[in-house]
Design goal:
It is a single chain. The protein is mainly α and 179 residues long. It has a single domain, classed as Arginine deiminase (Pentein), CATH 1.10.3930.10. It is built from 8 helices and 2 strands. A two-stranded parallel ribbon has the order 1-2.
Length: 179
């Protein structure tokens, strides 16, 4: 029920048929490129998607909403702007780049790499994940060789930051570096 105390209504959905004023969207990108027949079911997708088609369809839908006066906020942009704030970046990475998530030997290099990125670049990996194969040579430790040797199919291994904006959970048994 919407408060009637003369205050402006709070954020949220208060009607199934009312006018849409503002919406948060997440364009298909790196997270969707990582979908495989093996992990799509675990990530709550029916099947692997054609990312280029999904991006085109998403852009078309966003343009239609904008043409109808809807304020469209892109998650990648919002997260990127947030990650440009040093306190927000430190808060998130302090909680996500930990040994239980990325592996004991990958914490220092992974954190240094993520700290070197712009907010926009960091948001791409926060949403889409970071595999050990993508960690630049300058940030690798000897431990990364062990992590790579234990991967069955390195091209499909990736862990994501668990957020409500990303689908599902990381593939079981994945040894990818995940912040």
């Amino acid at each position: 029920m919407i408060p009637t105390t003369g205050q402006t209504s709070s954020y949220g959905v208060h009607s199934e048929v009312g006018r849409l004023r503002k919406v948060l969207v997440c364009s298909p990108g790196l997270a969707h490129e990582r979908l495989t027949p093996t992990n799509s079911d675990e990530l709550l997708f029916d099947d692997v998607m054609w990312v280029e088609n999904a991006q085109r369809d998403h852009l078309d839908f966003v343009n239609k909403m904008k043409n109808r006066g809807v304020d469209v906020v892109e998650l990648h942009d919002l997260l990127g702007q947030t990650m440009d704030m040093p306190e927000a970046r430190a808060w998130l990475l302090d909680r996500k780049v930990i040994a239980n998530r990325v592996g004991l030997g990958l914490v220092t290099g992974t954190r240094a790499f993520l700290d070197s990125l712009s907010g926009a670049e960091l948001s791409r990996y926060l949403i889409g994940g970071l595999s050990t194969m993508e960690l630049p040579e300058d940030y690798r430790s000897d431990y990364i060789g062990l992590a790579r040797e234990s991967q069955e199919d390195p091209s499909t291994s990736c862990r994501r930051f668990p957020t409500r904006s990303t689908p599902g959970i990381p593939p079981a048994g994945s040894t990818a570096a995940s912040p």
